[in-house]
Amino acid sequence: MNEHALRDLLDLVRLGTLAPEAAAERLKNLPFEDLGFAKVDHHRMLRQGYAEVVFAKGKTPAQVAEIVRAMLRNKAARHNVLVTRADAKTFAAVWRVAKSAKFHELSGVITVERDRKISGKGTICVVSAGTSDIPVAEEALLTAQMMGNRVEHLYDVGVAGIHRLLEHRENLIRARVIVCVAGMEGALPSVVGGLVAVPVIAVPTSTGYGASFGGVAALLGMLNSCASNVTVVNIDNGFGAACVASCINRL
Question: What are the strands, taking DSSP E only, across the chain?
Fold first, then answer.
């Protein structure tokens, strides 16, 4: 359910096209639907501007599929469905309830696209330092797209070959928000932040050798950035970065 769908529903009742009882039937699972093992938040789009997203890790394929089924049978709004941190077995279960589902294997994201409307005012640019950071960057890119944004990407433009980044400086300047994904020492967001006048959301990844401590070194480096327009999300959290970027892009 989103604000537009709610207004349409109320208009149908006002015009006599839809009986109040039928409208009540459509709304009966708001604000959430209790599946026993999960409470599906059908109200989230109305409250926050984007629908609930399913985090598949730790859930069985059957549980994820049932949550997706509940989202799809909610006729009050035809929002996109997004599942993160999924695998092939989870996708197989989701595909049985949503034949239009797509599995993006590199990022572990499952998408069911039902709404292509663009709600973001500008472009979100997703930047990755290295090829090894692309899975997290792709999670951010797909999340931003499914939340109604125009998205561009620049991959493998890290500080080891800074000329690769500078070649695309115009793309960075045109963006309204930048999501910058990097592992190792996590230096790239500071460089990008120094080139632009927009928010840079830094995503540390667990890419790196032993002393990177699974992304902690990159996280601390980003938190200590001297570029004042850089903010940081958790390690490997491309999804969270894209959510924040979407909120900014709607303002």
Answer: 33-34, 39-40, 54-55, 81-84, 102-104, 109-112, 123-128, 150-154, 177-182, 200-204, 230-232
C-alpha distances out from residue 175 to 107, 196, 233, Å: 23, 9, 19
pLDDT over 80 (residue 207): yes
Domain covering 123-250, topology: Rossmann fold (3.40.50)
**Per-residue confidence (pLDDT) for residue 29, from 0 to 100:** 57
Q: Does the predicted TM-score (pTM) go above 0.90?
A: no
Domain ranges within the chain, ordered by starting residue? 3-9+26-112, 123-250
Structure confidence by residue, pLDDT tens digits, 69-102: 999 987 666 789 999 999 999 999 999 999 999 9
Backbone angles phi, psi at 230, to 5 degrees: -100, 130
Query: 227 by DSSP, 3-state: which?
Result: coil
CA 59 to chain centre: 19
Q: Tell me the C-alpha distance between 89 and 251, whole Å.
A: 38
Q: Are 62 and 94 in contact (CB under 8 A)?
A: no
Residue 152 pLDDT: 97
